[in-house]
Amino acid sequence: MSLAGLLGQIHDADAVVAAETLQRLDRLTKPQGSLGRLEELAVQYCAITGERKPAVPRAMVVTFAADHGVVEEGVSAYPRDVTAQMVLNFLRGGAGVNVLARHADVEVRVVDIGVAHDFGPIPGLLHRKLMMGTRNMLRAPAMDRTTAEEAIRIGIELATDAVQQGFGLIGTGEMGIGNTTASAAIAAVMTGVMVKEATGLGTGIDEQGLARKISVIERSLATHHPDPCDALDVLSKVGGLEIAGMAGVMLGSAAARVPVVLDGFIAGAAALIAVGLQPRCRQYMIASHRSVERGHRVLLDSLQLKPLFDLDLRLGEGTGACLGIGLVRAAIKILTEMATFDEAGVSGRNA
Fold this sequence. Notes:
The chain is α/β, with parallel strands linked by helices. It is built from 15 helices and 6 strands.
């Protein structure tokens, strides 16, 4: 199926089911609305899936890994080699996302979509490499438009496969040294804010490094003039392969009526691309947290997404998504396991 065909399969969430879910929540043994965001989550989940009394879903985080040529400009505190090293750490189960995934009973799938390293045959790694990292966006477009679209299609296919395997909740994760630079560039273009408002310290650069990073992004945008009305143009000129993969997961999940739980800043940039391609997919997104990264608030405001928590996270990988998945499951249990006033024989509110 073409990308355009897939985008046409994404429809609005079910408002009727949302209203019915809210009615049931209001009959549960509690003051109306007293469980706050958990109630909102339950309504959103049911509206997305069309289920009135859903089972607690199996959950997966898809963690995409890719490198960025712009690292050559000194925009990161870590060398490019760390991307490949962390992929091996994911596969051994030793990274932050692995720990939180085990805690939350979430499966992690690791995807090489553009790491500048030849892993060879290695158990557990999904090989979907399109490039050995993007080009240096200061010197050339990060990738061509065809590659950007193909990376999105990989994400769509992985989401589709996950749904067919019985997963009903999908989280996004990533690893890629230099990807906060690409994400800040996307944020600046797609939201219209100044580059300095969208750019943060990433992996921990100093103020001099931050100034260099802002300058690199500003010069890249001035060179390539990405069109904010054309998400694929933005993605291809200043984006990343892992960002494209995550955008594809978001679109594929929405087409299958499965909620997608976003991680942090990089996932937010991917969400901007996905929403730029199909605005209705925003209804299928759940923002797990607000990152410390400066531009994340800008992204969330633009997407009109309210994060579930703010724990000063900035690791990525899918760590925040794992915790967010736990809250979604809690919301479903409230809806389906908590008694109504009638069922419990408890007096309701006075007329």
